[in-house]
Design a protein that fits this description.
alpha+beta, Tetrahydropterin Synthase, Chain A, 4 domains, 7 helices, 48% helix, elongated
Amino acid sequence: MDKLPKIALPVVFAFIVVVILISKSAVTIDSGQAGVLYRTFGGGVVTDEPPLGEGFNLVAPWNSVTIYEVRQQEVFEKMNVLSSNGLDIKLDASIWFEPVRQELGKLHQEKGEDYVQRVLLPAIRSAARSVVGRYTPEQLYSSKRDAIQHEIFEESKKIVQNQYVQLNDILVRDVTLPATIKEAIERKLKQEQESLEYEFRLVTAQKEAEKVRIEAQGKADANLILSASLNDRILQDKGIDATIKLSESPNSKVIVIGSGESGLPIILGNQ
């Protein structure tokens, strides 16, 4: 077997070194991610350039890249806060957020990869304590949940607006009151509902009674007007009109004119 040429060994060694360098230099960034470059001999974290984008990237082997997800993300948080009268309230919330892509280098340098625990969640907890402390348990349980959600979101945005984090929304999923307080509120709401129903029935009955009274008064007034307008001549005219109509009926046989009271006709011989 022939010996390898003297040049072959250095070539093989150089090839191995190149392969190692390429493998160390190649950085692949997935969809929805971005990379923060750290230059070992060039000032550390790069903050004055856009982060590395998706796909294949080459960096010097002595540098490093930290990859962040830059899509909208969701984190769930359970908090214990106090109402305006000092009662313990449990609040479950979903937080939608994403890092500010163009400020990713500063976020990495100043806050680090665990920025959610260092920046975002403390801001949410602080805002939740401040907002919930303005309301009573009754308000939290019934009509004010949407208002509380909006206020927590707005106050949290103010806290994180200069922290390189974009807060998209906060959804209050559940508000849990102490069991005794919840039962008391439910009893009170039930009593209020029953009271409203009773008042409604009472008003309806009063309106119906007023309607009947008005109808009766109208009939009485009509009868008075009719009685005042009747006299013998009108009654005779009415009788004559009725006689004419009856005479046209096939059942009428004999009509005696002027034989009844007040000279009204008498009808005889009906079949």
